[in-house]
Amino acid sequence: MPELSRIGVAIATDLLGEFDALINKRGYTNRSEAFRDLIRAELVRESSSRPTGHVVGSLTVVYDHHVRLLEEKLTELQHNHSRLILSVLHIHLDHDNCMELIALRGTSKDVQRLAGLLTATKGVKHAQLAITASSEAL
Amino acid sequence: MPELSRIGVAIATDLLGEFDALINKRGYTNRSEAFRDLIRAELVRESSSRPTGHVVGSLTVVYDHHVRLLEEKLTELQHNHSRLILSVLHIHLDHDNCMELIALRGTSKDVQRLAGLLTATKGVKHAQLAITASSEAL
Amino acid sequence: MPELSRIGVAIATDLLGEFDALINKRGYTNRSEAFRDLIRAELVRESSSRPTGHVVGSLTVVYDHHVRLLEEKLTELQHNHSRLILSVLHIHLDHDNCMELIALRGTSKDVQRLAGLLTATKGVKHAQLAITASSEAL
Amino acid sequence: MPELSRIGVAIATDLLGEFDALINKRGYTNRSEAFRDLIRAELVRESSSRPTGHVVGSLTVVYDHHVRLLEEKLTELQHNHSRLILSVLHIHLDHDNCMELIALRGTSKDVQRLAGLLTATKGVKHAQLAITASSEAL
Q1: What is the span of the domain harbouring residue A129?
Q2: What is the predicted ipTM?
Q3: Which of A19, B50, B116, C95 has a CA positioned 20 to 30 A from the CA of residue D4?
Protein backbone atom coordinates (compact mmCIF):
# COMPACT_ATOMS: atom_id res chain seq x y z
CA MET A 1 0.00 0.00 0.00
CA PRO A 2 1.37 3.45 -0.86
CA GLU A 3 1.86 6.01 1.91
CA LEU A 4 -1.26 8.16 2.36
CA SER A 5 -1.48 11.89 3.07
CA ARG A 6 -4.57 13.53 4.47
CA ILE A 7 -5.06 17.12 3.33
CA GLY A 8 -7.69 19.76 4.00
CA VAL A 9 -9.47 21.55 1.17
CA ALA A 10 -11.54 24.72 1.64
CA ILE A 11 -14.46 24.89 -0.74
CA ALA A 12 -17.70 26.86 -0.97
CA THR A 13 -20.50 24.77 0.52
CA ASP A 14 -22.68 25.25 -2.58
CA LEU A 15 -19.94 24.11 -4.94
CA LEU A 16 -19.26 21.08 -2.75
CA GLY A 17 -22.95 20.19 -2.84
CA GLU A 18 -22.96 20.20 -6.63
CA PHE A 19 -19.79 18.15 -6.77
CA ASP A 20 -21.27 15.57 -4.40
CA ALA A 21 -24.41 15.37 -6.54
CA LEU A 22 -22.32 14.83 -9.67
CA ILE A 23 -20.11 12.08 -8.26
CA ASN A 24 -23.11 10.38 -6.68
CA LYS A 25 -24.76 10.26 -10.08
CA ARG A 26 -21.58 8.77 -11.53
CA GLY A 27 -21.62 6.00 -8.95
CA TYR A 28 -18.83 7.12 -6.61
CA THR A 29 -19.37 6.12 -2.99
CA ASN A 30 -16.25 7.89 -1.74
CA ARG A 31 -15.39 11.55 -2.23
CA SER A 32 -11.62 11.09 -1.87
CA GLU A 33 -11.70 8.55 -4.70
CA ALA A 34 -13.41 11.10 -6.93
CA PHE A 35 -10.75 13.71 -6.07
CA ARG A 36 -7.95 11.25 -6.84
CA ASP A 37 -9.55 10.44 -10.21
CA LEU A 38 -9.80 14.16 -11.06
CA ILE A 39 -6.13 14.61 -10.23
CA ARG A 40 -5.00 11.61 -12.23
CA ALA A 41 -7.05 12.66 -15.25
CA GLU A 42 -5.42 16.11 -15.12
CA LEU A 43 -1.93 14.58 -14.90
CA VAL A 44 -2.70 12.42 -17.93
CA ARG A 45 -3.86 15.45 -19.95
CA GLU A 46 -0.56 17.11 -19.02
CA SER A 47 1.64 14.09 -19.94
CA SER A 48 -0.09 13.60 -23.26
CA SER A 49 0.66 17.17 -24.23
CA ARG A 50 4.42 16.76 -23.61
CA PRO A 51 6.09 14.85 -26.48
CA THR A 52 8.57 13.17 -24.11
CA GLY A 53 5.99 12.24 -21.45
CA HIS A 54 5.73 8.49 -20.85
CA VAL A 55 2.25 7.15 -21.42
CA VAL A 56 0.26 3.94 -21.63
CA GLY A 57 -2.95 3.70 -23.56
CA SER A 58 -4.67 2.10 -26.47
CA LEU A 59 -5.44 2.64 -30.11
CA THR A 60 -8.78 1.34 -31.32
CA VAL A 61 -8.85 0.74 -35.07
CA VAL A 62 -11.78 -0.26 -37.27
CA TYR A 63 -11.09 -1.47 -40.80
CA ASP A 64 -12.56 -3.42 -43.69
CA HIS A 65 -10.58 -6.63 -44.01
CA HIS A 66 -11.56 -6.92 -47.70
CA VAL A 67 -9.28 -4.05 -48.67
CA ARG A 68 -6.41 -5.63 -50.59
CA LEU A 69 -3.17 -6.00 -48.62
CA LEU A 70 -4.54 -4.01 -45.68
CA GLU A 71 -3.97 -6.68 -43.05
CA GLU A 72 -0.41 -7.20 -44.32
CA LYS A 73 0.26 -3.46 -44.07
CA LEU A 74 -1.16 -3.17 -40.55
CA THR A 75 0.85 -6.17 -39.37
CA GLU A 76 4.01 -4.80 -40.98
CA LEU A 77 3.52 -1.39 -39.33
CA GLN A 78 2.92 -2.99 -35.96
CA HIS A 79 6.03 -5.15 -36.23
CA ASN A 80 8.13 -2.13 -37.16
CA HIS A 81 7.01 -0.52 -33.89
CA SER A 82 6.80 -3.62 -31.76
CA ARG A 83 8.60 -2.03 -28.81
CA LEU A 84 5.58 0.31 -28.42
CA ILE A 85 2.96 -2.43 -28.63
CA LEU A 86 2.14 -4.50 -25.57
CA SER A 87 -0.60 -6.66 -27.00
CA VAL A 88 -3.50 -6.67 -29.48
CA LEU A 89 -7.11 -7.79 -29.23
CA HIS A 90 -8.83 -8.59 -32.54
CA ILE A 91 -12.62 -8.57 -32.91
CA HIS A 92 -14.79 -9.54 -35.88
CA LEU A 93 -17.44 -6.82 -35.85
CA ASP A 94 -19.48 -8.01 -38.79
CA HIS A 95 -19.07 -9.50 -42.25
CA ASP A 96 -16.80 -6.72 -43.44
CA ASN A 97 -15.38 -4.94 -40.44
CA CYS A 98 -12.69 -5.80 -37.93
CA MET A 99 -11.81 -3.90 -34.77
CA GLU A 100 -8.38 -4.05 -33.16
CA LEU A 101 -7.59 -2.77 -29.69
CA ILE A 102 -3.84 -2.16 -29.57
CA ALA A 103 -2.31 -1.66 -26.12
CA LEU A 104 0.53 0.87 -26.30
CA ARG A 105 3.33 2.10 -24.06
CA GLY A 106 6.03 4.66 -24.85
CA THR A 107 6.66 8.37 -25.15
CA SER A 108 3.65 10.48 -26.03
CA LYS A 109 5.39 11.44 -29.27
CA ASP A 110 6.14 7.87 -30.42
CA VAL A 111 2.69 6.62 -29.46
CA GLN A 112 1.02 9.45 -31.36
CA ARG A 113 3.22 8.92 -34.41
CA LEU A 114 2.36 5.23 -34.61
CA ALA A 115 -1.33 6.05 -34.14
CA GLY A 116 -1.05 8.50 -37.04
CA LEU A 117 0.54 5.93 -39.34
CA LEU A 118 -2.09 3.28 -38.57
CA THR A 119 -4.89 5.82 -39.02
CA ALA A 120 -3.54 6.94 -42.38
CA THR A 121 -3.40 3.43 -43.81
CA LYS A 122 -5.83 3.04 -46.68
CA GLY A 123 -8.86 0.98 -45.61
CA VAL A 124 -8.68 1.97 -41.94
CA LYS A 125 -12.07 3.56 -41.34
CA HIS A 126 -11.70 4.83 -37.79
CA ALA A 127 -8.97 5.05 -35.25
CA GLN A 128 -9.06 6.59 -31.83
CA LEU A 129 -6.16 6.99 -29.45
CA ALA A 130 -6.87 6.82 -25.72
CA ILE A 131 -3.96 7.96 -23.60
CA THR A 132 -4.85 6.43 -20.30
CA ALA A 133 -2.00 7.08 -17.93
CA SER A 134 1.26 8.82 -17.55
CA SER A 135 3.81 6.35 -16.26
CA GLU A 136 4.50 8.90 -13.53
CA ALA A 137 0.91 8.83 -12.36
CA LEU A 138 0.70 5.06 -12.03
CA MET B 1 -18.76 35.77 0.68
CA PRO B 2 -20.24 32.27 0.24
CA GLU B 3 -20.25 29.85 3.16
CA LEU B 4 -17.09 27.71 3.21
CA SER B 5 -16.75 24.00 4.03
CA ARG B 6 -13.47 22.42 4.97
CA ILE B 7 -13.17 18.78 3.95
CA GLY B 8 -10.46 16.15 4.32
CA VAL B 9 -9.15 14.22 1.32
CA ALA B 10 -7.02 11.06 1.59
CA ILE B 11 -4.50 10.78 -1.22
CA ALA B 12 -1.34 8.79 -1.89
CA THR B 13 1.66 10.95 -0.96
CA ASP B 14 3.31 10.32 -4.35
CA LEU B 15 0.22 11.35 -6.28
CA LEU B 16 -0.12 14.49 -4.15
CA GLY B 17 3.52 15.35 -4.88
CA GLU B 18 2.90 15.17 -8.63
CA PHE B 19 -0.25 17.23 -8.33
CA ASP B 20 1.58 19.90 -6.36
CA ALA B 21 4.34 19.99 -8.98
CA LEU B 22 1.77 20.39 -11.76
CA ILE B 23 -0.20 23.20 -10.13
CA ASN B 24 3.01 24.96 -9.14
CA LYS B 25 4.11 24.92 -12.76
CA ARG B 26 0.74 26.36 -13.76
CA GLY B 27 1.16 29.24 -11.35
CA TYR B 28 -1.20 28.25 -8.53
CA THR B 29 -0.08 29.41 -5.09
CA ASN B 30 -2.96 27.72 -3.28
CA ARG B 31 -3.89 24.04 -3.46
CA SER B 32 -7.55 24.51 -2.52
CA GLU B 33 -7.93 26.94 -5.42
CA ALA B 34 -6.59 24.27 -7.79
CA PHE B 35 -9.08 21.73 -6.40
CA ARG B 36 -11.96 24.15 -6.82
CA ASP B 37 -10.94 24.79 -10.43
CA LEU B 38 -10.82 21.05 -11.14
CA ILE B 39 -14.31 20.64 -9.70
CA ARG B 40 -15.76 23.56 -11.63
CA ALA B 41 -14.21 22.34 -14.88
CA GLU B 42 -15.78 18.92 -14.34
CA LEU B 43 -19.19 20.47 -13.62
CA VAL B 44 -18.94 22.47 -16.83
CA ARG B 45 -18.11 19.36 -18.87
CA GLU B 46 -21.21 17.77 -17.34
CA SER B 47 -23.53 20.74 -18.03
CA SER B 48 -22.37 21.07 -21.61
CA SER B 49 -23.26 17.45 -22.27
CA ARG B 50 -26.87 17.92 -21.05
CA PRO B 51 -28.98 19.70 -23.71
CA THR B 52 -31.03 21.54 -21.07
CA GLY B 53 -28.05 22.56 -18.93
CA HIS B 54 -27.68 26.34 -18.57
CA VAL B 55 -24.34 27.63 -19.75
CA VAL B 56 -22.41 30.79 -20.45
CA GLY B 57 -19.55 30.88 -22.87
CA SER B 58 -18.31 32.31 -26.09
CA LEU B 59 -18.13 31.57 -29.77
CA THR B 60 -15.03 32.74 -31.57
CA VAL B 61 -15.54 33.14 -35.30
CA VAL B 62 -13.01 33.99 -37.99
CA TYR B 63 -14.23 35.01 -41.43
CA ASP B 64 -13.23 36.79 -44.60
CA HIS B 65 -15.23 40.01 -44.80
CA HIS B 66 -14.85 40.09 -48.58
CA VAL B 67 -17.25 37.19 -49.03
CA ARG B 68 -20.38 38.70 -50.53
CA LEU B 69 -23.27 39.21 -48.11
CA LEU B 70 -21.46 37.36 -45.31
CA GLU B 71 -21.60 40.18 -42.79
CA GLU B 72 -25.29 40.66 -43.51
CA LYS B 73 -25.95 36.96 -42.96
CA LEU B 74 -23.99 36.85 -39.71
CA THR B 75 -25.76 39.94 -38.39
CA GLU B 76 -29.14 38.51 -39.40
CA LEU B 77 -28.41 35.19 -37.66
CA GLN B 78 -27.28 36.96 -34.53
CA HIS B 79 -30.38 39.15 -34.44
CA ASN B 80 -32.61 36.11 -34.85
CA HIS B 81 -31.00 34.66 -31.71
CA SER B 82 -30.45 37.86 -29.82
CA ARG B 83 -31.76 36.47 -26.53
CA LEU B 84 -28.73 34.11 -26.50
CA ILE B 85 -26.17 36.80 -27.28
CA LEU B 86 -24.87 39.02 -24.50
CA SER B 87 -22.37 41.06 -26.46
CA VAL B 88 -19.93 40.92 -29.35
CA LEU B 89 -16.31 42.00 -29.76
CA HIS B 90 -15.14 42.60 -33.32
CA ILE B 91 -11.45 42.52 -34.30
CA HIS B 92 -9.78 43.29 -37.62
CA LEU B 93 -7.16 40.54 -37.85
CA ASP B 94 -5.60 41.54 -41.15
CA HIS B 95 -6.55 42.87 -44.57
CA ASP B 96 -9.02 40.04 -45.23
CA ASN B 97 -9.95 38.45 -41.95
CA CYS B 98 -12.19 39.47 -39.08
CA MET B 99 -12.56 37.76 -35.74
CA GLU B 100 -15.68 38.03 -33.62
CA LEU B 101 -15.93 36.96 -30.00
CA ILE B 102 -19.60 36.40 -29.26
CA ALA B 103 -20.57 36.11 -25.58
CA LEU B 104 -23.41 33.62 -25.17
CA ARG B 105 -25.83 32.55 -22.46
CA GLY B 106 -28.63 29.97 -22.67
CA THR B 107 -29.29 26.25 -22.66
CA SER B 108 -26.49 24.06 -23.89
CA LYS B 109 -28.71 22.94 -26.77
CA ASP B 110 -29.62 26.46 -27.97
CA VAL B 111 -26.06 27.72 -27.64
CA GLN B 112 -24.72 24.77 -29.62
CA ARG B 113 -27.37 25.15 -32.30
CA LEU B 114 -26.53 28.82 -32.83
CA ALA B 115 -22.83 27.97 -32.91
CA GLY B 116 -23.57 25.36 -35.58
CA LEU B 117 -25.50 27.82 -37.74
CA LEU B 118 -22.78 30.48 -37.54
CA THR B 119 -20.09 27.87 -38.30
CA ALA B 120 -21.96 26.59 -41.34
CA THR B 121 -22.33 30.03 -42.90
CA LYS B 122 -20.38 30.26 -46.15
CA GLY B 123 -17.22 32.33 -45.67
CA VAL B 124 -16.80 31.54 -41.98
CA LYS B 125 -13.38 29.93 -41.84
CA HIS B 126 -13.19 28.86 -38.23
CA ALA B 127 -15.47 28.81 -35.27
CA GLN B 128 -14.83 27.48 -31.82
CA LEU B 129 -17.31 27.26 -29.00
CA ALA B 130 -16.02 27.61 -25.45
CA ILE B 131 -18.56 26.63 -22.84
CA THR B 132 -17.16 28.34 -19.80
CA ALA B 133 -19.59 27.84 -17.00
CA SER B 134 -22.76 26.16 -16.00
CA SER B 135 -25.04 28.72 -14.47
CA GLU B 136 -25.31 26.31 -11.54
CA ALA B 137 -21.57 26.39 -10.96
CA LEU B 138 -21.31 30.17 -10.88
CA MET C 1 -16.96 -3.42 -52.68
CA PRO C 2 -19.35 -0.54 -51.89
CA GLU C 3 -20.61 1.68 -54.69
CA LEU C 4 -18.33 4.70 -55.20
CA SER C 5 -19.28 8.28 -55.99
CA ARG C 6 -16.87 10.78 -57.42
CA ILE C 7 -17.54 14.35 -56.36
CA GLY C 8 -15.88 17.67 -57.07
CA VAL C 9 -14.76 20.00 -54.30
CA ALA C 10 -13.78 23.65 -54.83
CA ILE C 11 -11.06 24.76 -52.46
CA ALA C 12 -8.60 27.65 -52.26
CA THR C 13 -5.28 26.50 -53.73
CA ASP C 14 -3.37 27.70 -50.63
CA LEU C 15 -5.61 25.80 -48.27
CA LEU C 16 -5.32 22.67 -50.39
CA GLY C 17 -1.52 22.99 -50.28
CA GLU C 18 -1.54 23.07 -46.49
CA PHE C 19 -3.90 20.13 -46.30
CA ASP C 20 -1.69 18.11 -48.63
CA ALA C 21 1.36 18.94 -46.49
CA LEU C 22 -0.47 17.84 -43.35
CA ILE C 23 -1.71 14.52 -44.70
CA ASN C 24 1.68 13.82 -46.25
CA LYS C 25 3.28 14.29 -42.85
CA ARG C 26 0.73 11.90 -41.36
CA GLY C 27 1.62 9.23 -43.89
CA TYR C 28 -1.36 9.37 -46.25
CA THR C 29 -0.53 8.52 -49.85
CA ASN C 30 -4.04 9.19 -51.13
CA ARG C 31 -6.00 12.41 -50.70
CA SER C 32 -9.44 10.80 -51.05
CA GLU C 33 -8.58 8.45 -48.17
CA ALA C 34 -7.77 11.47 -45.99
CA PHE C 35 -11.11 13.08 -46.89
CA ARG C 36 -12.99 9.88 -46.07
CA ASP C 37 -11.24 9.69 -42.69
CA LEU C 38 -12.17 13.31 -41.92
CA ILE C 39 -15.79 12.58 -42.75
CA ARG C 40 -15.94 9.40 -40.69
CA ALA C 41 -14.34 11.12 -37.69
CA GLU C 42 -16.96 13.88 -37.90
CA LEU C 43 -19.79 11.32 -38.09
CA VAL C 44 -18.40 9.58 -35.01
CA ARG C 45 -18.25 12.86 -33.06
CA GLU C 46 -21.91 13.37 -34.02
CA SER C 47 -23.04 9.84 -33.03
CA SER C 48 -21.26 10.01 -29.69
CA SER C 49 -23.13 13.17 -28.80
CA ARG C 50 -26.55 11.54 -29.44
CA PRO C 51 -27.55 9.27 -26.53
CA THR C 52 -29.32 6.82 -28.84
CA GLY C 53 -26.59 6.72 -31.47
CA HIS C 54 -25.12 3.24 -31.99
CA VAL C 55 -21.40 3.08 -31.40
CA VAL C 56 -18.49 0.68 -31.12
CA GLY C 57 -15.39 1.54 -29.18
CA SER C 58 -13.26 0.67 -26.24
CA LEU C 59 -12.72 1.55 -22.63
CA THR C 60 -9.15 1.43 -21.39
CA VAL C 61 -8.91 1.00 -17.64
CA VAL C 62 -5.82 1.05 -15.41
CA TYR C 63 -6.09 -0.22 -11.84
CA ASP C 64 -4.11 -1.52 -8.90
CA HIS C 65 -4.95 -5.19 -8.47
CA HIS C 66 -3.94 -5.04 -4.78
CA VAL C 67 -7.02 -3.02 -3.88
CA ARG C 68 -9.25 -5.39 -1.92
CA LEU C 69 -12.20 -6.83 -3.86
CA LEU C 70 -11.52 -4.59 -6.87
CA GLU C 71 -11.18 -7.39 -9.40
CA GLU C 72 -14.38 -8.98 -8.11
CA LYS C 73 -16.23 -5.67 -8.46
CA LEU C 74 -14.94 -5.04 -11.99
CA THR C 75 -15.87 -8.56 -13.08
CA GLU C 76 -19.31 -8.24 -11.51
CA LEU C 77 -19.93 -4.91 -13.24
CA GLN C 78 -18.83 -6.32 -16.58
CA HIS C 79 -21.08 -9.36 -16.23
CA ASN C 80 -24.05 -7.15 -15.38
CA HIS C 81 -23.50 -5.38 -18.70
CA SER C 82 -22.30 -8.29 -20.75
CA ARG C 83 -24.50 -7.46 -23.74
CA LEU C 84 -22.39 -4.27 -24.19
CA ILE C 85 -19.03 -6.01 -23.91
CA LEU C 86 -17.58 -7.78 -26.92
CA SER C 87 -14.29 -8.90 -25.43
CA VAL C 88 -11.56 -7.91 -22.98
CA LEU C 89 -7.76 -7.81 -23.20
CA HIS C 90 -5.91 -7.93 -19.89
CA ILE C 91 -2.34 -6.65 -19.53
CA HIS C 92 0.01 -6.80 -16.54
CA LEU C 93 1.65 -3.37 -16.68
CA ASP C 94 3.95 -3.75 -13.71
CA HIS C 95 4.04 -5.21 -10.21
CA ASP C 96 0.97 -3.26 -9.07
CA ASN C 97 -0.93 -2.13 -12.13
CA CYS C 98 -3.18 -3.89 -14.61
CA MET C 99 -4.60 -2.45 -17.82
CA GLU C 100 -7.79 -3.74 -19.40
CA LEU C 101 -8.94 -2.90 -22.90
CA ILE C 102 -12.68 -3.53 -23.03
CA ALA C 103 -14.28 -3.65 -26.48
CA LEU C 104 -17.78 -2.17 -26.36
CA ARG C 105 -20.82 -1.98 -28.62
CA GLY C 106 -24.20 -0.40 -27.87
CA THR C 107 -25.99 2.92 -27.68
CA SER C 108 -23.83 5.92 -26.85
CA LYS C 109 -25.80 6.35 -23.63
CA ASP C 110 -25.37 2.77 -22.38
CA VAL C 111 -21.70 2.66 -23.33
CA GLN C 112 -21.04 5.94 -21.51
CA ARG C 113 -22.96 4.80 -18.45
CA LEU C 114 -20.96 1.60 -18.15
CA ALA C 115 -17.73 3.56 -18.66
CA GLY C 116 -18.81 5.86 -15.82
CA LEU C 117 -19.49 2.99 -13.44
CA LEU C 118 -16.15 1.31 -14.15
CA THR C 119 -14.32 4.64 -13.77
CA ALA C 120 -15.97 5.37 -10.43
CA THR C 121 -14.99 2.02 -8.92
CA LYS C 122 -12.55 2.52 -6.06
CA GLY C 123 -9.03 1.51 -7.09
CA VAL C 124 -9.51 2.29 -10.78
CA LYS C 125 -6.83 4.89 -11.45
CA HIS C 126 -7.56 5.86 -15.01
CA ALA C 127 -10.20 5.12 -17.55
CA GLN C 128 -10.57 6.49 -21.03
CA LEU C 129 -13.42 5.86 -23.40
CA ALA C 130 -12.68 5.83 -27.13
CA ILE C 131 -15.78 5.91 -29.27
CA THR C 132 -14.45 4.65 -32.53
CA ALA C 133 -17.34 4.28 -34.88
CA SER C 134 -20.98 4.88 -35.29
CA SER C 135 -22.58 1.69 -36.49
CA GLU C 136 -24.07 3.81 -39.27
CA ALA C 137 -20.63 4.86 -40.49
CA LEU C 138 -19.24 1.34 -40.72
CA MET D 1 -10.35 36.38 -54.08
CA PRO D 2 -7.88 33.54 -53.58
CA GLU D 3 -7.08 31.19 -56.46
CA LEU D 4 -9.41 28.16 -56.47
CA SER D 5 -8.59 24.53 -57.22
CA ARG D 6 -11.20 21.99 -58.14
CA ILE D 7 -10.36 18.46 -57.02
CA GLY D 8 -12.10 15.11 -57.31
CA VAL D 9 -12.75 12.93 -54.29
CA ALA D 10 -13.79 9.25 -54.47
CA ILE D 11 -16.08 8.27 -51.67
CA ALA D 12 -18.48 5.40 -50.94
CA THR D 13 -21.99 6.47 -51.93
CA ASP D 14 -23.38 5.44 -48.51
CA LEU D 15 -20.79 7.43 -46.62
CA LEU D 16 -21.44 10.46 -48.81
CA GLY D 17 -25.15 10.15 -48.09
CA GLU D 18 -24.53 10.26 -44.34
CA PHE D 19 -22.18 13.20 -44.68
CA ASP D 20 -24.75 15.12 -46.72
CA ALA D 21 -27.40 14.39 -44.08
CA LEU D 22 -25.09 15.64 -41.32
CA ILE D 23 -24.10 18.90 -43.01
CA ASN D 24 -27.69 19.53 -44.03
CA LYS D 25 -28.74 19.24 -40.41
CA ARG D 26 -25.98 21.67 -39.45
CA GLY D 27 -27.27 24.22 -41.91
CA TYR D 28 -24.71 23.97 -44.72
CA THR D 29 -26.10 24.67 -48.16
CA ASN D 30 -22.86 23.91 -49.97
CA ARG D 31 -20.85 20.71 -49.71
CA SER D 32 -17.52 22.28 -50.67
CA GLU D 33 -17.91 24.76 -47.80
CA ALA D 34 -18.36 21.84 -45.38
CA PHE D 35 -15.21 20.19 -46.74
CA ARG D 36 -13.23 23.40 -46.37
CA ASP D 37 -14.41 23.76 -42.77
CA LEU D 38 -13.35 20.19 -41.97
CA ILE D 39 -9.91 20.86 -43.42
CA ARG D 40 -9.45 24.12 -41.55
CA ALA D 41 -10.56 22.55 -38.26
CA GLU D 42 -7.98 19.78 -38.74
CA LEU D 43 -5.23 22.32 -39.50
CA VAL D 44 -6.12 24.20 -36.32
CA ARG D 45 -5.93 21.03 -34.22
CA GLU D 46 -2.48 20.44 -35.73
CA SER D 47 -1.22 24.01 -35.09
CA SER D 48 -2.45 24.02 -31.51
CA SER D 49 -0.46 20.90 -30.77
CA ARG D 50 2.81 22.45 -32.02
CA PRO D 51 4.25 24.88 -29.40
CA THR D 52 5.64 27.18 -32.08
CA GLY D 53 2.51 27.17 -34.25
CA HIS D 54 1.01 30.64 -34.71
CA VAL D 55 -2.57 30.86 -33.55
CA VAL D 56 -5.38 33.29 -32.93
CA GLY D 57 -8.15 32.58 -30.49
CA SER D 58 -9.77 33.64 -27.31
CA LEU D 59 -9.74 32.99 -23.62
CA THR D 60 -13.07 33.20 -21.84
CA VAL D 61 -12.72 33.85 -18.12
CA VAL D 62 -15.42 33.94 -15.44
CA TYR D 63 -14.56 35.39 -12.03
CA ASP D 64 -16.06 36.86 -8.89
CA HIS D 65 -15.16 40.54 -8.80
CA HIS D 66 -15.57 40.61 -5.02
CA VAL D 67 -12.38 38.61 -4.50
CA ARG D 68 -9.87 41.05 -3.05
CA LEU D 69 -7.26 42.36 -5.50
CA LEU D 70 -8.41 39.97 -8.24
CA GLU D 71 -9.14 42.62 -10.85
CA GLU D 72 -5.78 44.25 -10.16
CA LYS D 73 -4.00 40.92 -10.62
CA LEU D 74 -5.83 40.12 -13.86
CA THR D 75 -5.08 43.56 -15.27
CA GLU D 76 -1.43 43.28 -14.25
CA LEU D 77 -1.09 39.84 -15.86
CA GLN D 78 -2.72 41.08 -19.06
CA HIS D 79 -0.43 44.11 -19.24
CA ASN D 80 2.63 41.92 -18.76
CA HIS D 81 1.55 39.96 -21.84
CA SER D 82 0.04 42.79 -23.82
CA ARG D 83 1.72 41.77 -27.08
CA LEU D 84 -0.42 38.59 -27.03
CA ILE D 85 -3.69 40.37 -26.31
CA LEU D 86 -5.60 42.00 -29.14
CA SER D 87 -8.62 43.22 -27.22
CA VAL D 88 -10.92 42.41 -24.31
CA LEU D 89 -14.70 42.35 -23.92
CA HIS D 90 -16.00 42.66 -20.37
CA ILE D 91 -19.50 41.45 -19.38
CA HIS D 92 -21.32 41.78 -16.06
CA LEU D 93 -22.99 38.36 -15.74
CA ASP D 94 -24.77 38.93 -12.46
CA HIS D 95 -24.28 40.57 -9.08
CA ASP D 96 -21.08 38.65 -8.34
CA ASN D 97 -19.70 37.33 -11.60
CA CYS D 98 -17.87 38.93 -14.50
CA MET D 99 -16.99 37.32 -17.80
CA GLU D 100 -14.08 38.49 -19.94
CA LEU D 101 -13.51 37.44 -23.53
CA ILE D 102 -9.83 38.03 -24.27
CA ALA D 103 -8.81 37.94 -27.94
CA LEU D 104 -5.33 36.43 -28.30
CA ARG D 105 -2.68 36.08 -30.99
CA GLY D 106 0.76 34.50 -30.72
CA THR D 107 2.55 31.18 -30.63
CA SER D 108 0.54 28.26 -29.30
CA LYS D 109 3.01 27.97 -26.42
CA ASP D 110 2.78 31.63 -25.33
CA VAL D 111 -1.00 31.73 -25.67
CA GLN D 112 -1.37 28.56 -23.60
CA ARG D 113 1.02 29.83 -20.94
CA LEU D 114 -0.90 33.07 -20.51
CA ALA D 115 -4.18 31.13 -20.39
CA GLY D 116 -2.67 28.96 -17.64
CA LEU D 117 -1.62 31.97 -15.57
CA LEU D 118 -5.02 33.64 -15.83
CA THR D 119 -6.77 30.36 -14.99
CA ALA D 120 -4.62 29.80 -11.92
CA THR D 121 -5.34 33.22 -10.44
CA LYS D 122 -7.27 32.91 -7.20
CA GLY D 123 -10.91 33.88 -7.72
CA VAL D 124 -11.04 32.91 -11.40
CA LYS D 125 -13.80 30.30 -11.49
CA HIS D 126 -13.64 29.13 -15.06
CA ALA D 127 -11.44 29.71 -18.02
CA GLN D 128 -11.62 28.14 -21.43
CA LEU D 129 -9.18 28.62 -24.25
CA ALA D 130 -10.51 28.46 -27.80
CA ILE D 131 -7.78 28.22 -30.40
CA THR D 132 -9.60 29.34 -33.46
CA ALA D 133 -7.13 29.51 -36.28
CA SER D 134 -3.61 28.86 -37.25
CA SER D 135 -2.23 31.96 -38.86
CA GLU D 136 -1.20 29.70 -41.73
CA ALA D 137 -4.80 28.63 -42.30
CA LEU D 138 -6.20 32.14 -42.50
Answers
A1: 54-137
A2: 0.83
A3: B116
Partner-chain residue, chosen from D12, D31, D39, that has the shortest CB–CB distance to C15: D39
Residues C41 and C106 in one domain: no
Please report residues of A whose CB lies closer than 8 A to that of C69: none
D-contacting chains (≥3 CB pairs under 8 Å): B, C
CATH number of the domain residue D111 falls in: 3.30.70.1150
D62 and D29 share one domain: no
Same domain, C43 and C59: no
| Coil vs helix vs strand at A31 | helix
Q: Does C21 touch chain D (CB under 8 A)?
A: no
Note if the pTM is more than 0.80: no
> Does A64 fall in a domain?
yes
Residue C29, class by beta-carbon neighbours within 10 Å (0-12 exposed, 13-18 middle, 19+ buried)? Answer: exposed
Q: Are residues A21 and A61 in the same domain?
A: no
Nearest to D124 by CA among D90, D75, D74, D82: D74
Cβ contact (<8 Å) for A42 and B36? Answer: no
Residues of B in contact with A36 (CB under 8 A): 11-12, 15
Residues D71 and D129 occupy one common structural domain: yes
User: Chain B neighbours among D 83-122 (CB < 8 Å)?
Assistant: 86-89, 91, 93-94, 96-97, 99, 101, 103, 105, 116-117, 119-122
Q: How many structural domains comprise chain D?
A: 2
Same domain, A29 and A73: no
B125/D138 Cβ within 8 A: yes
Same domain, yes or no, for D120 and D88? yes
**Residues 6+ positions from D87 with CB-CB distance below 8 Å:** B89, B91, D102, D103
Say whether both A58 and A73 belong to one domain. Answer: yes
pLDDT in tens, D47-103: 777 778 888 999 999 998 888 889 899 999 999 998 999 999 999 888 888 999 999
